[in-house]
Amino acid sequence: MNKPETDVSQIGRDYKYGFHTTDKPTFSTGRGLTREVVETISAQKNEPAWMLERRLEAYEHFLTRPIPTWGGDLSRIDFDSIFYYVKPTETEAASWEELPPDIKQTWDRLGIPEAEKKYLAGVGAQYESEVVYHKLQEELVRRGVVFLGMDVGLREHEEIVREHFGKVVPFDDNKFSALNTAVWSGGSFIYVPPGVKVEMPLQAYFRINAENMGQFERTLIVVDEGAFVHYVEGCTAPIYSSDSLHAAVVEIIVKPGGRCRYTTIQNWSTNVYNLVTKRAVAQKNATVEWVDGNLGSKLTMKYPAIVLAGEGAHGEVLSIAFAGAGQHQDTGAKAIHLAPNTTSVITAKSISRGGGRAGYRGLVSVDHGARGAKSKVVCDALILDEESRSDTYPTIRVHEADANIEHEATVSKIGEEQLFYLMSRGLSEQEASSMIVSGFVEPITKELPLEYAVEMNRLIQLQMEGSVG
Amino acid sequence: MPLLEIKDLHVALDDGAEIVKGIDLTVESGEVHAIMGPNGSGKSTLAHALMGHPAYTITSGEVLLDGSSLLKLAPDERAQKGLFLAFQYPYAIPGVTVTSFLRSAMNALRKARTGGEDDPIPIPEFRKELAAATEKLKVPRELLGRYLNDGFSGGEKKRIEILQLALLRPRLAVLDETDSGLDIDALKTIAGGVSDLVGPEMSAIVITHYQRILNYIRPDFVHVFAGGRFVAEGGPELAEQLESEGYDAYLPEASNGAR
Ligand SMILES: Nc1ncnc2c1ncn2[C@@H]1O[C@H](COP(=O)(O)OP(=O)(O)O)[C@@H](O)[C@H]1O
Ligand SMILES: [Mg+2]
Q1: Are A317 and A336 spatial neighbours (Cβ–Cβ below 8 Å)?
Q2: What is the C-alpha separation between B67 and B64, in angstroms, rounded?
Q3: Which of A346, A402, A426, B211 could form a disulfide with B109, with the two C-beta atoms 3.0–4.6 Å apart?
């Protein structure tokens, strides 16, 4: 409406996390992946032999497993140019001051130390391949909560890690879970003892700094009976002209009556392939909630899954995907009902604009024996212009006659009438469409703690800037 | 200089059909003008065209606010110059609460006033203004936390339109059938609220089908709108005459003698 065109090439400039620093890593395996690289990573970490065996087994599988062709375009990933392991510092710091100045400055610019003071119970910060900072409130340490970098977790709690590692997401689940299992480094290890409720969120922050970096963190969360934890992860990277790869694996086990909420605010720069496998098992009467915000990356393929393994277990997925120019968000959710009277709710909202492509890919499965299962899926897509695209690929498999499955999908455009109404109150076209988009995702942002809701809205505003012609 | 001047305005739809067929209107500051006419005569078309709705094309004529043309301005720029339209059918914005919308709209106008600098209204001041206006217009507090017009009754929507008017303080308010959907008590409160705002700071154009609302917002002039034109003009007494005699005398059929 009578507004000058915005130059699309300027949009990336709004990505305020696009800076990088020029620190020197203390060790790197160089470009490319070989058996020696896998062995070197394991040796660097002084791992038990069983872990090296698992890595090598996964490495062999990765080599033979074909690259998936059903989702986004993965053909341009150059596996030979990627750095699979880059160690930024010698040791993990317990105070921000101990970090090298360049790295500390990065975290300051991202506002992490400040957030820690204000509203977090614990913080982990991963830079390239390693967790460089980790801290949990004393009070929680006393109550037996464990929140460590995954490498330290393996060293200090080998039995728990050995019991669960690769059980929820087997190495051969997919090509990228195989890759992660082979070269994993960093990530979080969390254990919450029976009955302990961690009121404030634990946050992990993942930062890629180097060009062509591959980040392969591995996270394992075990929530014991009747316990609760909310874990939040945030991700950013600099803007480079060549691509980086983030292929994480997250495994969660929630024991009877426990609850785990896992919130992601993924804001990778638009040169990052984000191929993540996330899966949780909910035992009897346990609850798992995935809150998944995908705003950044070049291509994201991620379908957080909940295996409802115990009677009465409940799973929820709330997902927001925003695909701007040059982005493809192929996201969704999976609910696998294995036990009687299990329930799941999946709410997925996507926004595409500027030629971006957002897709919902989901699976609801009710297996033999899962009597009385209930599942509700709602996917709403908002398409902001003619060039952009939205797709829905739902799969439903039901083996029990009394299952109650609902699936609703809507696709909408911003109405001229809504825009006119808001503009007639003095809001510019861009402010008006941002407001409509914020309202569209509100059912999800209202589920977030205030600070994250504000952050999510701010990121959406940034994505919207320059979005209207 | 008059606040608003409409000169020989013609408005057409996208398909070329002409709905407003040449009207002239001058509104001085502090005046209330009533535009009365039968359904489908083009009253809302006129209101939308004044506000700059893209579906209505002004094919000829001129609209001046404070002597300068509005026609090239986008709707937000018209609002920033002091024009306000209370919609006959307000739109819903799911997910955006009435309160947060009101604050954004007030801030948008404040920003325009400072020439583009952000000048957000301090929260305590906003709360105070909001509380005063909601009390005066008897807007249930519960509505403020709900999503704008989402699932609102017709009457609730109209109340929220006038709440916006009270907070945004335009210089010219165009009310498009604000009375429809309101029961008599609500009409009294809301129309009374508008009437209190009328004065040197704000003029009003009250579009209506019925004379009722004009008991609470006394018009200085009444224009009868039929078939895209003003077919009669006069003082408040004209409204009363219309109420008792109806619009028949002004309908094209009547002049054709075809009843
Ligand atoms: N956006 C539109 N698209 C198509 N027809 C329209 C549109 N707006 C108005 N009209 C037509 O223009 C005429 C006048 O409508 P309107 O201005 O709403 O009248 P009033 O407000 O006086 O009842 C009607 O015939 C109506 O159907
Ligand atoms: Mg009308």
Answers
A1: no
A2: 5
A3: A426
Asked if the C-beta of B78 comes within 8 angstroms of chain A's C-beta atoms, the answer is: yes
Tell me the two tokens of residue B109. 């106008």
Q: Which residues of A261-300 are buried (b: 16+ CB within 10 A; e: fewer)?
A: bbbbbbbbbbbbbbbbbbbbbbbbbbbbbbbbbbbbbbbb
Identify whether B133 is part of a domain: no
- Residue A42 belongs to a domain: yes
In a domain, B211, yes or no: yes
Host domain of residue B64:
4-96+172-253
Say which CATH number the domain at B80 has. 3.40.50.300
Whether residue A438 and residue B95 make contact (CB cut-off 8 A), yes or no, is: yes
Q: For residue B45, report the distance from its CA to the centre of ligand 1, in Å.
A: 6
Measured in whole angstroms, how far is the alpha carbon of residue A210 from the centre of its chain?
Answer: 20
Is B55 in Cβ contact with A422 (below 8 Å)? no
Residue labelled with tokens 């009270």: B166
Q: Looking at the 3D structure of chain A, how many domains does it have? A: 1
Q: Which amino acid is at A140?
A: L
* pLDDT tens digits in sequence order for chain B, 259 residues long: 999 999 999 999 999 999 999 999 999 999 999 999 999 999 999 999 999 999 999 999 999 999 999 999 999 999 999 999 999 999 999 999 999 999 999 999 999 999 989 999 999 999 999 999 999 999 999 999 999 999 999 999 999 999 999 999 999 999 999 999 899 999 999 999 999 999 999 999 999 999 999 999 999 999 999 999 999 999 999 998 888 888 888 876 544 433 3
CA B87–ligand 2 middle distance (angstroms): 9
Q: How many domains does chain B have?
A: 1
Domain that holds residue A353: 4-464
For residue B226, give the H/E element and its range: strand B221-226
